[in-house]
What does this fold into?
Amino acid sequence: MLWFHPLLQALTTLGALYVLFLGAHRFAAAHLGIKTVFAWKRHVFLGMGVLLLWLAGFTGGSVMAANTWGTEFVSGAHYWVGLAMATLIPVVFGTGLRMDMNKARRSRLPLFHGALGVALIALALTQAVTGIALIRTWIVGG
Ligand code: HEM
Ligand code: HEM
It folds into this structure.
């Protein structure tokens, strides 16, 4: 059970990299004038999946922390960065949903959405680093 949260979050982060790869095609076409094909529906479907799984994993991590330590916040940076992700996720989700449901020529909203998506992935990668440290201390080491 202890491995569930780390494995889910690591796999979800890999999925997010793929979602970003799809989004990068749109970026290249919209802002760099490079001809590409944007897998719109796949980006939306997998994007929603990734964001929901990250959120579920946030809850899962909190439950595990409560079980292990009897409280939250023990993990320091891992908790706070997780919380930052949990606040950014609805923004990326909301802007994505809006652009999907109401298609229009835009340049600033997609950029804002894409930049926050990149920020989420960067935060998730730092979670992997601090998360592995937690595994060493609490799961394997202790
Ligand atoms: C990890 C999650 C996500 C990442 C990293 C991400 C990243 C990106 C990037 C880089 C772009 C190109 C932006 C540009 O052209 O300036 C984009 C476009 C787009 N994304 Fe996402 N996205 C994510 C999730 C979502 C979700 C959940 C939805 C829908 C609910 C969504 C819907 C869209 C749409 C519709 C566009 C095209 C907007 C347009 O050009 O009019 N994305 N995304
Ligand atoms: C990517 C690889 C990740 C690994 C290896 C990892 C690993 C861990 C570990 C080992 C714990 C401690 C669980 C315990 O033994 O009680 C934990 C807790 C937690 N994780 Fe992660 N995690 C990762 C990603 C994430 C992400 C992406 C989020 C947020 C979206 C997140 C949010 C949390 C939260 C909120 C806790 C509870 C911390 C506390 O209350 O102090 N984790 N994680």
Remarks:
- Residues 2, 5-6, 9-10, 13, 54, 57-58, 61-62, 64-65, 68, 72-75, 78-79, 82, 85, 124, 127-128, 131-132, 134-135, 138-139 surround protoporphyrin IX containing FE (ligand 2) (CB under 6 Å).
- The chain has one domain: 4-140.
- DSSP finds four helices and no strands in the chain.
